[in-house]
Amino acid sequence: MARVLHNLFMFTMTLILRIRVLGYWSLIYGYCALCTAVALLKLWWNIILRPSTTFHWGIRETPPACLNDTSLGTHCYVRIKESGLRFHYVAAGERGKPLMLFLHGFPEFWFSWRHQLREFKSEFRVVAVDMRGYGESDMPSSTESYRFDYLVTDIKDIVEYLGYNRCYLVGHDWGGTIAWLFAIHYPEMVNKLIVLNCPHPSVFTDYALRHPSQLLKSSYFFFFQLPRFPEVMLSINDFKALKGLFTSRSTGIGRKGRWLTAEDMEAYLYAFSQPGALTGALNYYRNVFSSLPLSQNDVKSPVLLLWGERDAFLEQEMAEACRVYIRNHFRLNIISGASHWLQQDQPDIVNTLIWTFLKEGEGRKTYRN
Fold first, then answer.
1. Strand 99-103 to 167-172 pairing
2. How far is CA 244 from the centre of its chain?
3. pLDDT (tens digit, 9 = 90+) per residue, 213-256?
4. Torsion sign across C-alpha atoms 164, 144, 239, 316
5. 173 noted as active-site residue
6. What is the pLDDT of residues 116-149, one digit of tens each?
7. Which of 182, 210, 314, 363 is the most buried (most CB within 10 A)?
8. Pairing relation of β-strands 303-308 and 190-196?
C-alpha cells in the first residue's frame, strides 16, 4: 500500500511539474503573439503616416569623432583561444593597477561607460568591453551562442587575458545580469560588485511572475523572441525606436540628467546600423527563457546596487529584494529622478557613490589586484 501511495505521489508531482512547464511556455508564446500583433499595428500605422520613410535606414560608414577620443583610452582587441571569438575593448589607466571591468547593457556598447573611464583611470586599469554580439566584438549568429554560461565564461577569459585573477566588476542592464552571474560562479575573482539598474536574475524572475505590472514592462522580452521582425521595428524611420529609448519622455534620460549630444547619438547609430549588430544584441533575449531559473544564487562579494528612480523598464521594489541573495555587505542607493540609463544620465552622482563604496573597508590607495 505504501508503495502504491508513493508511486501515486510521484506521478502527481511529475504531472504538476509538466503542467507548470506547459503553462510557463504557453505564457511566453502567448504573450509573444500579443506583442507581435501590437507591433504589426504600429508598423502599419507608420506605413500609413510615413509611406516614403518607414523603411528608410542607412548604415553609418564613418564613426563619429567621440569614438576615437583618446581621453577615453586605447582601443584593443583580444582573441580568446577557447571560444575563438575576438573581443574589442577600450582600456585606460596604468597597467598593473587594480582592474575595473565595465559591462554594458542593451542597446549599448563600450561607449556607455565614457564618463566612468575618465573618472576611474587615475586609480585603476579601467576596461570597457564590447560584449559578445556587440560593437566591434564578434557576433555569433547562433542563438545558442548567447547562453548564460558562455557569456559568463567570456568575462573570465577576458580578465585572465588581461593578466588579472581578480577585478572590481561593474555592470549595467544586461551587463549587470552577467556581472551578477559572474560573481555567483566565480566569487574568488570579484573584489567588489557594482550593479546599475539590474536586479539579481532570480529576483527578476520571481517578481515578474508575481507582478503583472512588471511583466507588462518586460513585454519586449517576448517580442524579441521573434526572428528578424524586432530588427525591422528597431530600424524603421532611420532607427527612430532606438533613438527613442534614450530620448523619449517615457524611457529616456530625465530632464535633469545629462542628455546625449547629437554626436553621442551618432555613436550609437554607427554601432547598431552595422550589418548584424541588432541581431547580436537581441540574441541575448532569445536565449534567456531557457537559462532561467538559476541553480545557484548566492553572491559572496560586497555589492553596491545603484538604481534610477525613474527606470521605465524595471520596478524599484526589485532592488531591495536583492538583499536576500547577498552573503556580504550590501549597499543600495536609489537616485532620485534618474532613468534606466544611469551611468550616462547622472554620471557625477554615480561616480561619487562608486568611490564611496570602493573606500569602504579599505583605503583608497590599497585596492587589491
1. parallel
2. 18
3. 998 899 889 889 989 999 999 999 999 999 999 999 889 997 77
4. negative
5. yes
6. 999 999 999 999 999 999 999 999 989 999 999 9
7. 182
8. parallel
For residue 136, what is its C-alpha cell?
Answer: 566591434
Catalytic one of 285, 311, 345, 367: 285
Residue bearing cell 537559462? 291
Please say whether the beta carbons of 341 and 254 come within 8 A: no
How confident is the model over 280-315, as pLDDT tens digits? 999 999 988 877 777 788 999 999 999 999 999 999
Catalytic residue among 268, 325, 340, 345: 340
The pairing of strands 125-129 and 330-335 is: unpaired
**For residues 57 and 212, which has the higher predicted lDDT (pLDDT)?**
212
Whether 206 is catalytic is: no
Q: How far apart are CA 177 and CA 173, in angstroms?
A: 7
The DSSP element (H or E) to which 308 belongs, if any, is: strand 303-308
Instruction: Establish whether 285 is a catalytic residue.
Output: yes
Choose among 348, 337, 308: nearest CA to 115.
348
Catalytic member of 130, 138, 173, 345: 173
Closest CA to 133 of 103, 169, 176: 103
Residues of 325-354 as b/e, b for ≥16 C-beta within 10 angstroms? bbeeebeebebeebbbbbbbbbbebbbebb
Q: In what order do the strands lie in the sheet with 86-92?
A: 74-79, 86-92, 125-129, 99-103, 167-172, 190-196, 303-308, 330-335
| Dist CA 8 CA 2 (whole Å) | 10
Residue type, 51: P
129 DSSP β-pair partners: 89, 103
